[in-house]
């Protein structure tokens, strides 16, 4: 996930709502572009979270879990 411009506050809020991360965890996640945000969830759940993040101003990519 990457955050462009001044939308990072909105992305952090959305990330916290969608994942239950603490403020510190969400800030760290937005600072690292390849930070895995969600694991152990269904593909559909991951797509919904990615869509919410995109709506907030982030660029999010859903990748399948490696076995």
Automatic annotation (TrEMBL):
This is Ribosomal protein L7/L12. Residues 3-61 form the Large ribosomal subunit protein bL12 C-terminal domain. GO terms for cellular component: ribosome. InterPro entries: Ribosomal_bL12_C, Ribosomal_bL12_C/ClpS-like. Keywords: Ribonucleoprotein, Ribosomal protein.
């Amino acid at each position: 996930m990457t955050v462009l411009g001044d939308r990072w506050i909105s992305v952090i809020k959305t990330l916290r709502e969608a994942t239950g991360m603490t403020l510190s965890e969400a800030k760290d996640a937005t600072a690292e572009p390849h930070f895995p945000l969600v694991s152990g969830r269904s593909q559909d759940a991951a797509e919904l979270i990615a869509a919410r993040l995109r709506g907030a101003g982030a660029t999010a990519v859903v990748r399948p879990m490696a076995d």
